[in-house]
Design goal:
3-stranded antiparallel β-sheet, binds zinc ion, Arc Repressor Mutant, subunit A, elongated, 2 domains, mainly alpha
Length: 258
Amino acid sequence: MQTKFLKSVVEDLINKQATPIIDLLLGKKHVNEFSIAKKLDLTINQTRNILYRLSDYGLVSFIRKKDKRKGWYIYFWTLNVHQSLSFLEGNLKKHLKNLKEQLKSRKEKRFYICDTCSIEVSEESALLNDFSCPECEEIYELSSSANLTKSLEKTIKKIEKEIVFVSEERKKEHEKLEKKKAKEIKKIEADKKEKRDAKRKANKIARDKLAKKMGVTKKVAKKKGKKKVKKGKKKVAKKSPPKGKKKVAKKVKTKKKK
Ligand SMILES: [Zn+2]
């Protein structure tokens, strides 16, 4: 069923002969354009023209690889099912709108017909021609729209059903794409985390190594620093307290001892 609809897209855009391209692309990925040409019994240029036209609408996409021996690029094509169904859904909706307008005008307006020429005209143009056919001068008769109305109503029902089906299929494809995307994002995140962890680990090792080295030099630096500080303190101690006060302090201490 999906195949049938996808083929109708290709038929609309290109022609009926091109429709087997759906069989060649559906459910596959990166299909070599030469194999498509061979299976469609078309030249490579004809095949590319079809594919380019479809890609204009985003219905197919490609990757290309350089042929190392021949030096040119070979294109590998993938059908974008979601995009194709979405395109078809849009077309069907336009078609449906058109048919509904036709039906409405059939129900609301009168049409006239020349039985001799089998030409039907709107009431406005019948009026312009004084209700006689400009081709054969036969008097127009009021056209019975009953048959046409019935057939329009039938087609509208059919198209409405098709829209429901295509829309459901499109939603399914959309979900598939979303799942795929989520999976890809998850993988990217996992890769990032792995890289981050590896970097962190490498950094830690480097830091530990450095710390070991620095640890040795720090201890040396600390010892030197302490000596300097002690020297400084001594100097300060010698200089700052006035002699009188020191003596007083000593006296106080001695008094307390007694
Ligand atoms: Zn006529």
